[in-house]
Design goal:
With 56 residues, this protein is mostly helical. It has four helices and no strands.
Length: 56
């Protein structure tokens, strides 16, 4: 969904291909918990300010 939004909005820190690549890696790993945790950490770091603003 993030890839679709990034493609449509064209105003996101990362382009849609970045999100789709993350999905491909996750699927190729057969939904590895390690990959999921790594990607979650990466997204959390990049979008920390945005996540905080949304939570407030």
């Amino acid at each position: 969904m993030a890839g679709e939004y990034a493609d449509y909005a064209q105003a996101v820190k990362c382009d849609c291909e970045w999100f789709y690549e993350m999905l491909n890696v996750y699927e190729d790993s057969e939904f590895s918990k390690g990959i999921e945790k790594y990607q979650t950490k990466k997204v959390s770091e990049i979008f920390k300010v945005n996540i905080t603003e949304a939570q407030d």
